[in-house]
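Lecture notes, unit on protein representations.

Consider one protein chain, 138 amino acids long.
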Amino acid sequence: DLNQSAEADEITALLPDLYPDSLDLKRAVSLGHQLASHGHNHYKRTSISAELFESELKKSKEILAKLLRIEPTAFSYPFNSYVEGDDQIVSKYFPQAATVDGGFLLQNYNRLSINRSTWPGVAKNNYRHRRWLLTGSI
């Protein structure tokens, strides 16, 4: 279908503006930002096996560590998709994991289910939203 092809071409043309490149990531880290894994292929967790999920975590962590020369310490579930028992898999690779389930971080929060928020709202286009996770203090 020509409409689907045109839409795919439009999205492909936007990719350089939508996604950071390796220099952007290195610059963010040099400015003191902590970067987290979001999976290697950005799969919805409920659509893949536990084995593939673990492979995604491992590959993502290895690539980020090699690129940034520091190990990422957090994972954020793509599409906020997760299943019971994922804590055990994620904890092999990351001490923290984030969801967008909402709510406050209380003193005894689960480090493998940290709530993050959308802020300051939508990104510069309709394809992505900015997500922020505050793990320190203001």
